[in-house]
Structure formats: structure tokens, C-alpha cells
Amino acid sequence: IYAISDQSSSAGLGLDYVKKLVLATNGTLMLYNSTKRPDCTLPQDLYKRLKAAHAFRGLLRVRMSPEFTPGRVFGQLSRDPAYDEIIRVPGCSQEQTIALDFQFTSTWGFGSGQKPVLQMAFEYSRLEPTRAVSSPEQHTNDHDKKTNNIDAIQMEMVCRLRVVTVRVSVARSPAELYRSADKYAIISHLTTQALHLSEAGSDLHDVQDMLRDWLVRLGACCFERGESESGERERAARRVLKDVLPAKKSPRSPSDAKQVGSDGIIECINSKPTLQDIPRLIFALRKSSILRPDGLPIDAQVYLQCLYRTMEPELLVRGIYPTLSAWKDLQNVSANGLLLEKKSVRNDAIYVLDAFSAVIVLYTNEAFNQSIPLPPPHNSPLRKAIKKLKKERNLLSPRVTYARIGSPEAAYFECQLIEEANAAGVGYSEFVAAIAKGVRATMS
Predict the structure, then answer these.
(1) pTM (2 decimals)?
(2) Which residues contact 12 (CB under 8 A, 6 or more apart)?
(3) Which of 55, 75, 316, 372 has its CA 20 to 30 A from that of 304?
(4) What SS3 state is found at 188?
(5) CB 359 within 8 A of CB 353
(6) Phi and psi for 135 in degrees, rounded to 5?
(7) What are residue 118's DSSP bridge partners?
């Protein structure tokens, strides 16, 4: 469904009534404010959707070693009523993501010593071109009349089966578990669970508290175990903790946590390379529009809920915590991956913020001192980088906005500096202090 909102009406389009249809068919819901704006991406999005491969009538069967079994299923799909191992997938594209919980079948866990086996078989149907048939058709224009041969592509529904079998490694210690973690998968799964809870009737404040408690438990586990990776990050963590922790005590005692500052506890999490940025991403998720929809129209809320349910993890993280880069001029990048705080926007001429569905290019006073043209020329490296971003998005084309600092268009850019305290919630430093306080209370 590609919906265009009527901004002159306060009633909205009623997308909350068609949400169940979108979820039941594993479909797509897109929302646009207007088709009259020059930056409207509806035509590009329609083209991308029609061009992309799509699967129909999917059946996913998950089989595994007897020690564990599938638990809950998250995503736009449902279990078969007759066969517990089969999951029905009405339709899907290559970008959509699903998630499954697993649970042990006994208290022995993986006690056999052998690597458990996981097999996924996905059967689906899709339309594929078979051959092109030339058919003469008459075309008339103002200059001449001629007969053209038009290639009509014949399509047919084809059934496919893909089977993947893997042996899964089992973590024997917390350190091994941390090394196997994937921050994108973690945030994707937490987002899906948060949406599932909110749609099941849970209060959004309770969902935010659950995310905070999850991070508190992770911080307590990391701090108590004291399992650190070798290298510079371990040395950095030890520098933070060396003045307040006994030199040869492991695991750390609850009294140690009371003495360590907020930065030290968060550094214990960040010292695991695979868990880096998890506190910052949890903070961003709690502050995002899907969990703080105050003032957001119901149509926009439904759109975001449908979009975030199955988005591929890397792009979902981009939508929750946008990337910020600084450019000295139209040719040279001075920094990538800047933190979303005001002090990151200082001396450079141009800043590019990629928020997945929108790209904001902010021109500072330095840009005008250098007489840099706005918008940038099409052959400039900056413009080419933006075109590359748009081309890489398979689901939708991000809306690109060029703004001068201090202008009304720059307000959205400033709202995306989420590490600052604003109407959506506290700043990141206050959040870290609250997490550290929770870790101390948990360990006490």
C-alpha cells in the first residue's frame, strides 16, 4: 500500500484499519506527505518495488538437534496450526527479516559435547520471466508513423526450495558468548520484541523500562565477570577502573560496582568489541518515534511500526541512530561516524546526516565563507556520495534535504542530535548515569 496523506484533514487516512491486512499478507506500507513536492520519492519507490524479486506462499520449516526447539516467532508470519515446525510466510522480499527464539528441551542444555545442528528449509513461489515474444503494435507521434516490434515478456509462477544446514558453536564461557554477539541482530530483535509488546497492549513506558532493565542486566553481567578482550580496549577499561578496583580480584564483588563511576560501567560493556555501541543504540531506541510517538499522527505511527518490523538489521540501526559525517568542502570528508550531539557540529563546512528514510545536508557559515554552492553540483564527490546512498536503498529512496544552518529546514537536523536532552527525553549522559545506578543496585 502506497498512501498519500491529506495534510488539510486532521482525520488522517485510517491506516490503523489496514495495518492488519499489511501484516497478514507480509506486505509493505509506505506513507508520503505529498506528491507535489519535488523531493517526493514515490515514483522511485514504486519502481524499486516492482523491480525487486518477491516470494509468495512461503513455508519455512525449522529443524534442529533434539536438545533445543523453536520458541516464539517474530515478524510478519505465523505458525502452521497443524505442524509446529512449519512457519507460514505469506510473502517476503530479500530485505525482510524474521527472528526466532529458541529454548532448551531439558535442563541438560547442550550436554552431549557435539555441535548442535540447525536446518532451515524455505519453500516459496515467485514470478520469473520465461521468454520474450515480439508483437507488432502501432505507435503514432507528431513526426512520423511507424510500426514497432514490442517485446512482451511472459511470466510464470515457479516454485523454489532452499535448504540451509549449519552446525552451531556453543559458548562455554561468557567471553565466548560476547565474542559471538552481533549488535545489529541484537538491536533488531529487541526492536521487534518492543513492537510486539506495544501492539499486545503493553504501556510504552513499560516497554522503555524493559529495555533499560535489559541493559542494566547486561552491564551487571559484564562488570561482574570482568571478561575483557585483549588489546587497546581492555587497557582503556583497566585505566578507568585501576584506581578503584583491587588489582587481583576476579570476579568483581558488588562493593566494587558501588565505587566505579558511570563511564567505568559502560566501558565494561564497550570493552567487548561485539557489544560496542549497544548502550548508545538502546538509548536511541528508547528515544525513537516508535516508542515515543507523542504528537506523531496515527498514520505515521502505523507506517513506522510496519516498516521497522521486518527491516534488515543494518538499516534498522541506521534509522534508530543516524550516521553523521563532516565534509571540509565538496571534495574532502573530514570525519565519519560522529556522535549525535551539538559539539560534533563545529568547524567543518558541511554535515551530512543519514537517517535511512531522509538525508539532511547542512551548510554551515563556513560553507558560505568558502562560497560553496547550494545545492552542490551534480559532478561533485559530495553529490555522488548522496546518489550512492539513494541507490543502495532497496526498499525506499531517502528524501534529500539541503539546509542552511539556522533555517527552518535545519530544525529536523537539530532534532536528530538525539544525545542532547530535548522534548523526547533525557540526554545520553543522564541515561548512562541511570544505567550505572541500576547496575550498582542490581549487584548490591
Answers:
(1) 0.81
(2) 5, 297, 298, 299
(3) 55
(4) helix
(5) yes
(6) -135, 130
(7) 64, 166
